[in-house]
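Severity: low
Component: inverse-folding endpoint
Summary: output formatting inconsistent between runs
Steps to reproduce: submit the following structure tokens with default settings.
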């Protein structure tokens, strides 16, 4: 008996650089791809969940413009269906909020000597 195919389609995902990633989700479609009917995993006999991942956290996209990569899924199974995991979705990593530090320092005297430190605003694009 030939198993019917279900298509594992990962949801698009956005994360801010240096934030904890909440994980990836997907939808099972009768397909091909994200077409046809959505199938509830709870209705599948012998269901094993696919694993969806991305290169977030390993690719090092630091302090750059917004990065768009892929979310991919692998594995998963069911008694009556085979799973096609060839569809990918977008992973968007956005830069962290700008961090700005402002300090005001005045002149100081120590042992009869005058010392002056001048420091202007320091701006950045978040933690490195």
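Observed output (run 2 of 3):
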């Amino acid at each position: 008996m030939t198993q019917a195919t279900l298509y594992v389609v990962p949801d698009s995902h956005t994360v801010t650089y240096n934030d904890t990633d909440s994980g990836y989700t997907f939808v099972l479609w009768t397909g091909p791809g994200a077409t046809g009917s959505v199938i509830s995993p709870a209705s599948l006999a012998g269901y094993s969940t696919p694993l969806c991942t991305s290169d977030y956290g390993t690719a090092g996209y630091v302090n750059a413009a917004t990065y768009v990569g892929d979310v991919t899924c692998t594995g998963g199974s069911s008694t009556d269906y085979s799973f096609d995991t060839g569809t990918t979705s977008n992973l968007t990593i956005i830069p962290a909020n700008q961090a700005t530090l402002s300090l005001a320092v005045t002149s100081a005297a120590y042992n009869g000597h005058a010392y002056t430190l001048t420091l202007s605003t320091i701006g950045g694009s978040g933690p490195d």
